[in-house]
Amino acid sequence: MVNSRDFGMHRAWLALVTMLMSISAAQAAVTARVDRNAIDLNESFMLEIVVDTDIDLQPDVSSLHEDFYVGQSSQLSNTMIVNGEISRSRTWTYQLMAKRTGELVIPPVAVGSESSQPQRITVRQPTNAPPGEADVFITSEVDYAESYVQAQVLYRIKVYRAVPTRQPALRDPQFGGAEVLIEVAGEERSYDARLNDRTYNVVERAYAIFPQESGEVTISPARFEARVLRAGRITGRKVFESEPQAIRVLPIPEPPADFPDAAWLPARDLQLRDNWSRQPDDLKAGEPITRVIEINALGQLETQIPAIEPPNVSGVNIYPDRPELSRQIEPGGIRGVRKDQYAIIGVDGGVMTLPALRLPWWDVEAGEWKVAELPERSISILPSREAPVVDPAPTVTTPVDDTEAPSAEVSMGRDFWRLVAQVVVVLWLLTLAAWWLSSRPKREPREPAPPPLHKQQARHLKAARKAALSGDGAGVRQAMLEWGRLQWPDDTPRSIGALSRRVSAPLSDELGRLSLAAYGRNGEGWDGQALAKSVRSFAVLDETGEDAARDPLPPLMPQT
């Protein structure tokens, strides 16, 4: 028989838990992002909905069906460990395909009471066509056939497969002519495309090319090698090549007349903004305040963004700090970010005006100079407070009767006995403290507490990186399996292959290659440098999702 009081407490507890979950969901930030913002019609792309906490609510994607076909979906719980700090989030991935061409808007997606921002994409008519009835083919393209020195050119390679393949290998092209700097522009992508009533699985790689001198850059054909499975039979190894590419690199144009000493900064988009450690209102003289000036440029490396020199302002001292450089990967390529931090200290009271800051840059798409600007800013500085000067009080002289004044001998005697009394009191207190300390029971030394779980895991990951860099495959396996034992104590993976299916790419790919090197028939090698790099940042996969552990490449199998 259920006690009514217990039943009421149970209902109250459930209501409290539901309320806390609702509050948590309401406070969770929802972010939407696409893997590409320019696609061809009948070409799928990925939409990710990210919530910055781990919740059980599901996104409402009903608004997507008007302009898009919604295909397969998966979800992933991310646990990131960076410098000992643990953060969790949940990501839902949806495969979408546009129903029409043009400029389309992905509407906001709601998760609980919060919604994502709308996303804009461009849907074009298909430009690639299979050569004849090809089951497999490869293409390459550049977004600009004519560019400028140090300006980004995106080079993309796409492998189309309508049939399964075995032992795939994608060979990067060779670059000739003018000197170039090459950076990887994001992770490898996998999606579907429908061409001539056939469905192809597409694997895409993107590179950011930065020419370092004027002239011409030549790019040899990219090569895809694989064995093709047809009618239940597998062919010998076949080689597929893309078309070659060429880029004409223009010299640096003359600086604008208003800025004859302007640094060369080509970009597709540039943003200049600042933020303060607190509002610069009623700042007291002598108190520091921090101003951070951020420059982010799409299509430019962070190391190429120049610093803005702080202005000289009378009555204000400005002290620059070391800049912070970083980059972001976007559908448009690499966005370099530079943050300069300045400590500002007011010396004199009054209203000080910081002049406007201007940064000229070259707009690659418009082919002209532009100027980013921060408007001038006024700072109100209060004078420092000083203690008021008080006039000394008048001295009143009172006659002293010599007969009543104590003698010098009497005064010295009183001081001596007062000093003796103070010494006795101090000695007594020290004796009392020593007795109390000696009478306390002695405690047995405690065993040191084991380090926190995240520090134990970080130690094993560090050991795995070190072993990978030294080419010690056995050391990598031992360290990663020890890490897996801590991560999944109730379901510990027993092999590197099993562990690779529980982590995200590229670590999953590198662990798979390590497993093949030890147990595979072909004895394929593994790259210690790539494995060490992949261990630095990865996500733990949620195995509840059916598609949580999808590998983009290999085995390069098209979806049916």
Overview of this structure, please?
The structure is a single chain. By secondary structure, the protein is an alpha+beta fold. It folds into 4 domains: 27-124, Sandwich (Immunoglobulin-like), CATH 2.60.40; 136-250, Immunoglobulin-like; 266-382, Immunoglobulin-like, CATH 2.60.40; 455-535, no CATH class. 20% of the residues lie in helices and 39% in strands. The protein is built from 7 helices and 32 strands. It has helices at 4-27, 408-439, 453-469, 473-487, 496-500, 507-519, 528-535; strands at residues 30-34, 38-40, 44-51, 68-82, 85-98, 102-106, 110-111, 114-115, 119-124, 136-142, 146-148, 153-161, 165-171, 175-177, 180-184, 189-195, 198-211, 215-219, 223-230, 233-241, 245-250, 266-267, 269-276, 283-284, 288-298, 316-320, 324-330, 333-346, 350-354, 357-363, 368-374, 377-382. Strands 10, 12, 15, 16 and 17 form a 5-stranded antiparallel sheet that branches. Strands 23, 25, 26, 27 and 28 form a 5-stranded antiparallel sheet that branches. The chain has a 4-stranded antiparallel sheet with strand order 1-3-5-4, with no helix packed on it. A hairpin with a 2-residue loop joins strand 7 and strand 8 (114-115). The protein is globular. The two termini are 56 Å apart.
Brief descriptors of the model:
Immunoglobulin-like; globular
